Amino acid sequence: xxxxxxxxxxxxxxxxxxxxxxxxxxxxxxxxxxxxxxxxxxxxxxxxxxxxxxxxxxxxxxxxxxxxxxxxxxxxxxxxxxxxxxxxxxxxxxxxxxxxxxxxxxxxxxxxxxxxxxxxxxxxxxxxxxxxxxxxxxxxxxxxxxxxxxxxxxxxxxxxxxxxxxxxxxxxxxxxxxxxxxxxxxxxxxxxxxxxxxxxxxxxxxxxxxxxxxxxxxxxxxxxxxxxxxxxxxxxxxxxxxxxxxxxxxxxxxxxxxxxxxxxxxxxxxxxxxxxxxxxxxxxxxxxxxxxxxxxxxxxxxxxxxxxxxxxxxxxxxxxxxxxxxxxxxxxxxxxxxxxxxxxxxxxxxxxxxxxxxxxxxxxxxxxxxxxxxxxxxxxxxxxxxxxxxxxxxxxxxxxxxxxxxxxxxxxxxxxxxxxxxxxxxxxxxxxxxxxxxxxxxxxxxxxxxxxxxxxxxxxxxxxxxxxxxxxxxxxxxxxxxxxxxxxxxxxxxxxxxxxxx
Length: 502
Known about the structure:
Elements: H1 3-15, H2 22-28, H3 31-35, H4 37-53, H5 55-64, H6 76-90, H7 96-132, H8 137-180, H9 182-217, H10 221-234, H11 236-263, H12 266-292, H13 306-327, H14 329-349, H15 361-364, H16 370-391, H17 397-416, H18 420-456, H19 462-492
Helix pairs in contact: 1-12, 2-7, 2-12, 2-16, 4-7, 5-6, 7-8, 7-9, 7-12, 8-9, 8-19, 9-10, 9-12, 10-11, 11-12, 12-16, 13-19, 14-17, 14-18, 16-17, 16-18, 16-19, 17-18, 18-19
């Protein structure tokens, strides 16, 4: 199959039944939410330790006696003196137990991130292979998570070890040559750089196709590396074409991210990269490798126009979201209680710092550019909603922690605000849409947690679990509509309408 045909098959597969593939890529955005659970538990344990030992009260009393307003940053001596006056007040918090808890929590979070990424990657590629074969992607992805996560972890570890090994060999060769003669050292450095670069490019090329080999050939790490190497030898033009496309997409994403990050649109680019570019590249390499193995089912082109598909998807998303809200009032009540409750916690937690540490909505709006701000608000808030919802797949807790975290952040920000009336006036127009949308995503995360728990215990079939993931995808499309409208209001209306009155 030539590159043009592979690209056509990729586009058709991605456009046909996107809800049968993209949920696993939405799940990929939730990996940080799942991974940070280790650190959150450590922070909760640290706080409990401080409360039980009285160290937190001691720190509060010491801080209450100080002027916590930092001096002018243009005066380094004054800033240093201020820091030296604050450090003794924080000494009660320098506990070995707290340090141990935070270190352990960080280590657990890193481990969770690695394991979750491997499991999600296995699900994504398995779903892609299922679609390429003409089957249902979500059921294949669910099976892939359970059956292939260890293989994908092995692939990542193997590639990392090879990169480390090549780098070490090059360093040893250069060091040995310099010991013999500086001229030999310079020549060895140049040669090692060139050879090492070629070897590392070959390693990356092989491991780019190795995940496709795992899911198409249903093999392990060694078999995947052998299969990927055989594909590159047999189809060097196709392999090179894919690598050129992949590099081009990455360069385009990086350029767009750099350009829009200056305008505040980096979050939207990151989201598009995760849920559009990543599945497209995975589909493309799996189609190429699958054709090499004779495992690609024919794909008919999509007759509907892209605009019609988009409008139809928006309408379906809105219907699915409203139906979900109507049938799950209890889950929404839980999400609201958690959000409001932890908002109160955030408000009370910063009470000792009110008046000394301040936030200002008016200062944050300096330099506000409505179009860029609206794009940033949309990308950031929809990313949070997606991660909160699909984070719930990891047995509810990540979704609840995400709701609680955002509640604490909003409560603390409001408590420290210099002009609370201005903050409330700013939030009101878009908040009537944005806040309910985030609560819907929280309720969806709780729902997916309950579904995943039933599936984990064997009380829910793989097909039913796939149906729940597909329904969640459409609910999040409806949530995206709410957040998009809220972002436009937040960008163009909220910063301005109240200024003549406050």
